[in-house]
Amino acid sequence: AYLTGKAWFAGLEFLSDRRALVPRSPIAELIQAGFQPWLDDREVSRALDLCTGSGCIGIAMAAHNPDWQVDLIDISEPALSLARENIAYQDVGDRVRAIASDLFAAVEGERYDLIVSNPPYVTEAEFEALPAEYGHEPKLGLTAGSDGLDFALRILREAPDHLTEEGVLIVEVGESERALVELLPEVPFNWVEFNVGQMGVFVIDRADLVQYGDLIRSVAKR
Q: pLDDT, tens digit, for every residue of 128-149?
């Protein structure tokens, strides 16, 4: 992708360079399937792509769902500048906005029907062992502490305040799936089966996040 400056994701072409990770999330498959069966018959009007990077997940959600308003959030200004270029490239600027924020900090009081996140989840040890091609990619977009769950736990803790009553949270944690299940065995994560098998993506609705909120908060404090 860095050689051509372009990458394909969810059937769409995106601009791609060193400012953000190359789009390669299995969430593309969910987007193309309309997030079924996970959304069921829920109405979605507002969605959030948290830790957006190049913007591909949120922009693809908007492109595949013409009546959705989508916010993109990232803490990295270089990544956001690329995301804004991709918003223009896909001509969805009337429905998609890019926001500089440390997770939910800049959207206090905002609520979404669907929050999708592909946050950093590589452990420090895994990062050291990554193949050379990842050396071109920003470390900020990859690493998340000793077990790869620093961001995922913060998202689990804070998401209920930003989801509508029937809202759904979808997060990719990759190889950190086992560590998350060991930390929170009681929480009813739904692990998505993709065409190529499980890829460390869970779905959970707001009601379950609220029900297990105390447990999540106690673990997320670590």
A: 555 555 554 554 444 445 565 8
Domain count, the chain: 1
Burial class (CB in 10 A: 0-12, 13-18, 19+), 102: exposed
Residue 136 lies in a domain: yes
**Nearest CA among 60, 52, 54, 56 for reference residue 18:** 54
Token output for 212: 């297990």
Whether 29 is in a domain gets the answer yes
This prediction has a pTM of 0.89
Q: Which residue has the tokens 């997770």?
A: 103
End-to-end CA distance of the chain: 37
Is the backbone peptide bond immediately before 120 cis, with ω within 30 degrees of 0?
no
